[in-house]
Amino acid sequence: MGYRLQEAHQKLNNWKHYYEDEYADYARAVKNGTMEPARSFFDLTLLQGHQVATEEIIEAENNYEKVRVQVRKLEVVLSDIYPSSGFANYSNDEYRASMEEAMANEVDREWIFSWMEKDDEEIDFEDDGDDWEAMSIGLDDSVSVVAKGRERERIDGWEKRCLTIDNDWTELPAALEYNPEPEPRKMVA
User: Could you list the residue ranges forming a coiled coil in this record (predicted)?
Assistant: First the structure.
């Protein structure tokens, strides 16, 4: 139902564009001599089409409201199986597969091939690095090596659990329940 309502709204919202396209076709047909130059007939036909589009919106809105009432009465929870944007797909929306082919045809392949065949030594790369200093870190600078107190106990407990799991699967539940008593924090005044 929702898509019908969206399609009806889109048709009416784009009516001016639709009218201009139809009028261009009409003017071309008159110029070619395949249609009589009775503009009033053309306008009347499009006016009737506009009325039909308006009636379609009214009907779609009424049907949509009826369905909403039924869904509420039945206490149905509607959820999309697939996530979606909530927007209907129309032919004049978004990116089309044919656009990719058109973009690929506009590429200057000769320039790309010549660029790929260039010798890298001929290219002058600018040194755009930032100047900053960093200290190198040794193995004995690791937290797990220099940790003390509570952090050391936490690391040792983790190591014990890993070794228990690695060596004896029967001790697995005991290893997973390991929880050393935390030391109370000292308040500094």
Answer: 50-77
